[in-house]
Structure formats: structure tokens, C-alpha cells
């Protein structure tokens, strides 16, 4: 029976490091996934209001479809500046693509942002948004162990009308194949069933990692958007005002096109954990990165294992979403 890795975090994929930077005055933050040496990567974008950087770089037809880091940030469009700080810090440390000997290295740092400008934080930053500095700080904080909940990119997040957060989970499939997920949860849709307590992702939970609540007798899920009146009151129905942004990681030797397939399949995890999802007012984006440590073998075996990895990525991402909200509402 597959089990979570020892941390139940994306960093159970060996080599990955994650750093959070949080600004309590702004009530926002940045979370960075470091992929030392550059990992094969791609991305799938499904929401109608995405905010992204360097996603086209990760398409299979392009030359530099690797990621030296992936940045998830609050701050809406201002949060895209976090990747500038990460790129500068990595380049200074000698990380990135060597275009020509003697030139400064160029790290590939794709990123996605969520909207948290409507909370009570101080957003009067004038011409100096704090996200570049938080990006640099997140690199300095990167480690195998990191906090979940109201930290980093999840600090100012909302999940429907509830507090959102930063979540992570992992699964060990055996034979060296490990899948991990990291997510900042800020959707317009709800992560809860009609009882307001049971996560939609409950069938995928392992060892009570997000509370162990199971559905009892309750209303059937026939209303497609049950919280829309309350969401309007919260001002959350504007285009671009919500999103769920995530990274999934695997140990396999994937090509860019195969990373794209894993990211596409992993989007099903959002559909299992959030209702509704991929709306016109969300910017749902999922990155996939691969360390290349484990060979998937010949063609027929390879296709089967990619299908298995994609299915696991969807399950792990669903768990990470519920865990992020659970950890945000039950701080240690």
C-alpha cells in the first residue's frame, strides 16, 4: 500500500527545498521551490484569470524547458516581482543556465500569483512592493522542512469564504517513485461539502492528515455554486480575484512533454478538492517538475508509469489542498 513520505511534504522528493517568506504587515507572502541544477518542467493553466511568468518557456517546443525554481506568491500582479528576487539570488549563487562562459548565469524561474489585495494588510507600498525582497528571503529560508497553513504564499489566501493556506503532501509509490505536491489555496469555490466541515477531498485522506472528518447525512451536491451570494458579499467574484496555484514533483526521468502530461492530470486534484473550480474568476495553474532520478524504462512500461504518476499527482494535490486549509484554521 503506498504511503506518504517521511515528511508528507513535497520535499520527500529528494533534492527539492522549499522556502517561505511572510510579511505580517502586508498579510501576504512568497513560497519558493528550489530545483538545484535545473529540473525538467512544464505547466498547465486552466483558470480564466491567471497571473503567470515564464510559463511559455516551459512548453515542450521550447529550448530551455527547465526550472531552477518555481515561485508561488501573493500580491496579485505585484507578486510577480518575487521571481525577480529569486532569480537574482540564484544567479548570485552561481545557479542558472550558462549561456556563454564568463557571463552571469540565467536562472529559469517560472511563477504564478494569487490575489490577496483585499485583506486587511497594509498595501500602501508606493513604488516599492515588498515581493522582490520576499523572493530573496524565501531563497535564504529554503529547507527540506517548512511550515504549512497561513504562511508564505498562503498567508493572505481565502478558500471560498473560509481561510485559505499553504498545503503540501506526498506519496511513495515504491521502486524509487515519489510524488509530492505544494499548493497555495485561494479559490472562489469551496473546499467543504454542504456541512461546512467535511473536505471534498476526504476520500483521499491518509492518517487523518486534515482532520479525519467523514460525511454524515447531508444535502446532496446538486447546487453548482452554493456560496455565490456570500462570495459576492466578500467581493470575491471579480475576475482574477481568486486562484489555486501549485507545484507537483516526481523523481522520474520525464521529458518536458511528459511533465506537461503530469501537470494536466494533476489538475484533476483541484476538481476533487474544490467546487467549482477552473472558473472565469480563478487563475488555476499547476507546474510539474521532475528530478530525473528514476528511469521509467521502455515505451510501453513508460506510458503505464506516467499514467500512474499522473493519477498519484492528482490524489496528492487534492490532499495538499485540504491540508493547507486545515493547517490554516488549526495553527500550532
UniProtKB/TrEMBL annotation:
<comment type="similarity">
    <text>Belongs to the peptidase S58 family.</text>
</comment>
<dbReference type="Pfam" id="PF03576">
    <property type="entry name" value="Peptidase_S58"/>
</dbReference>
<protein>
    <submittedName>
        <fullName>P1 family peptidase</fullName>
    </submittedName>
</protein>
<dbReference type="InterPro" id="IPR005321">
    <property type="entry name" value="Peptidase_S58_DmpA"/>
</dbReference>
<dbReference type="InterPro" id="IPR016117">
    <property type="entry name" value="ArgJ-like_dom_sf"/>
</dbReference>
<dbReference type="GO" id="GO:0004177">
    <property type="term" value="F:aminopeptidase activity"/>
</dbReference>
